[in-house]
Amino acid sequence: MGLDETKDNPLDRLSAWLAADMDGVNALIRDRMASEHAPRIPEVTRHLVEAGGKRIRPMLTLAAARLFGYPGPFHVHLAATVEFIHTATLLHDDVVDESAQRRGRPTANLLWDNKSSVLVGDYLFARSFQLMTETGSLRVLGILSDAAATIAEGEVLQLSASQDLRTTEATYLRVIRGKTAALFSAATEVGGVIAGADEAHVRALFDYGDALGIAFQMTDDVLDYGGSAGSIGKNVGDDFRERKLTLPVIKAVALADEAERAFWTRVIARGDQRDGDLDAALAILARHRTLEATRAEAMDWAARARAAVLSLPPHEGREMLADLADFVVERIR
Amino acid sequence: MGLDETKDNPLDRLSAWLAADMDGVNALIRDRMASEHAPRIPEVTRHLVEAGGKRIRPMLTLAAARLFGYPGPFHVHLAATVEFIHTATLLHDDVVDESAQRRGRPTANLLWDNKSSVLVGDYLFARSFQLMTETGSLRVLGILSDAAATIAEGEVLQLSASQDLRTTEATYLRVIRGKTAALFSAATEVGGVIAGADEAHVRALFDYGDALGIAFQMTDDVLDYGGSAGSIGKNVGDDFRERKLTLPVIKAVALADEAERAFWTRVIARGDQRDGDLDAALAILARHRTLEATRAEAMDWAARARAAVLSLPPHEGREMLADLADFVVERIR
């Protein structure tokens, strides 16, 4: 498919380009999430895997491998690996955040229970390690096991930083690099590695995934205070209610006058939230223009992602990945 | 150290024999559970790792490698891997079972919270995959990632089987093979593989670990209805309160008269438990002698473990492992 027909949505263009490979990924996911003896595993997993997620992470792996002419088959294994790790993380997040909604549907732990979410997540982690082992590439195993450790570390760091008004922008960056960007950058990096790309190109693929993931998460964190539930599949104000220190709030705390500081201390540090507090928070963010400042940073990271991928050899898919970086931040109107 | 001085306790003899290697394992564990940015990780982990567990699983790996003259260093990595997987499983079990006590100390999720238990467990899983990747052995990676999947599947199966009076002895065997024996058999198998043992010996090591793990878990399940909290680090009746279908109850349900069946239906299937029910359950188990029957099966598995390890070439450590099989079931008085 050429670029012209669907040029306005790079995700759709990537889906069309990678359709045959994605069929392989979906078949492999269905095959590996089966469990003869524990039917609850596919019940829980299917809920997430078939919930209509964009599959952006496995497409990154497939695209990176295709950019360097890789004929297969192991980019499909790695794409399925990345999606399994992502799904396992969502299951464990559901336990963790007590979030009531994910992608607009009830979370797994409301339909089933915390126990199933934890254990089925563990099963998917184990399945992901089986899949990557099958590639026979120790380098790929190193990259993905490092990413898994960075993801967990980022989630734990987010837990410690939550409710803590002293959280800095540097800590925030470390948290989102862990919880989001680490899997994006591992996804693109392993695609290049399995394809035998040279070191400079593998590095550029990593940089692209890293910057894309950061732009993606910063955009989510803006949308949490300004989007509609439909656009990101969660409710406005979730982060506020969970007392997370995301960039818009961190910037507002840094600029707070005495009254604002007392407000943040009450609602975030002490967790004493009342009717109208979310609106009050939004008014403070508007006064200091921190949603705009966060959006500007997200656009800056998107530009870095674009530059990184455009350093690769010319390829139709390269342009789609570059456009994807802009698309990810354009979700903010 | 010779066999004579401490012949009555094979665990102590193994500890003495493997002391230098275990120092290496402990140093590696301390090193790898550190996290510069998320100090909560070592806080949570130290609680479990330093809680005075017997370290039976890492010793199995070290012993298996030493039986075949392996000079190191990767048996130490694999032993630490096995202990990390075990610790991660305990952390996730704590979330799952709401158990109030583990090894006689408060569980991690009472000291911290469910979120920390889930995420720190994930971190340890990831660390374990990093450690095994460092060995450079794809065969070892395959064995341990298969074991991780079997463990999770066994835990999910236990969840579905819990409260279900139709649970068979075959299902019970599958559950304990997953939740306990899979890590024992992987521990011994990878020790042989990393040492370059021949296939028949690797198979015997697997069979030893498998049978030892089954004997170990059956013994735990008897002790849950008859031991003291001190001997297994949990409370008598935990399984009963959690409505688990363990072998003593499965056998009793199969032999139940009408009144007993109504009792099991009320306390296990419906979960309507009252004062005195644990004593009533113990009386039924005694009437049908199902604790004795379970103990007999555990001893049979211990004999299989002994036979498997005694098929290996003569070695001082081989005798310790054979005696360990008897020791594991002798915990039942």
Describe the secondary structure blueprint for this structure.
The structure is a homodimer of 333-residue chains.
Chain A: H1 10-17, H2 19-33, H3 40-49, H4 56-67, H5 74-97, H6 108-111, H7 114-134, H8 138-161, H9 169-194, H10 199-226, H11 229-232, H12 238-241, H13 247-254, H14 258-269, H15 277-287, H16 290-310, H17 316-330
Of all protein chain pairs, which has the greatest interface, and how many residues does each chain bring to it?
A: A-B, 40 and 40 residues
Describe the sheet with the most strands of chain A.
Answer: none
User: Which CATH top level class of chain A fits?
Assistant: Mainly Alpha
Distance between the termini of chain A: 29 Å
Radius of gyration of chain A: 20 Å
CATH superfamily of chain A: Farnesyl Diphosphate Synthase
CATH architecture of chain A: Orthogonal Bundle
* Number of strand elements of chain A: 0
- CATH topology-level fold name of chain A: Farnesyl Diphosphate Synthase
Order of helices and strands of chain A: HHHHHHHHHHHHHHHHH
Average pLDDT number of chain A: 88
Count of alpha/pi helices of chain A: 17
The figure for the number of domains of chain A is 1
Shape type of chain A: globular
Report on this model:
The structure is a homodimer of 333-residue chains. The first copy, chain A, has helices at 10-17, 19-33, 40-49, 56-67, 74-97, 108-111, 114-134, 138-161, 169-194, 199-226, 229-232, 238-241, 247-254, 258-269, 277-287, 290-310, 316-330. By secondary structure, chain A is an all-alpha fold. In chain A, helix 2 (19-33) packs across helix 5 (74-97) and helix 4 (56-67) runs antiparallel to helix 17. The relative contact order of chain A is 0.11. Residues 1-6 and 97-105 of chain A have low confidence and may be disordered. The interface between A and B is large, with 40 and 40 residues.
